[in-house]
Amino acid sequence: GGINKVDKLSDKHNEIVNFAFIQLSAQSDNNKDCELKKIDIENFSKQVVSGTLYRFDLIVKSECDEPSQEKCSLVVLDQPWTNTREVQWDDVKCEKIESN
Description:
1 helix; alpha+beta
């Protein structure tokens, strides 16, 4: 299936975003004092494959020694009939957003 851009997130879409955010927070948990905060969601799209691939950019802020913002491009595969929902880590990219 083609990639469909989503402008208005449904409850299901927000659930996918929250799932990915929790996974991402767990990944960056090496530094216990750092708390990630979800700031914004951009470029949300879904693609029907064997299940659904959700792609979106998550803007997160880490509350560390020096607060910084990152934009993380995330891909989540959702397959309800196999109870599979997972972040496709090979496709995840995070980059720092330079603050002015």
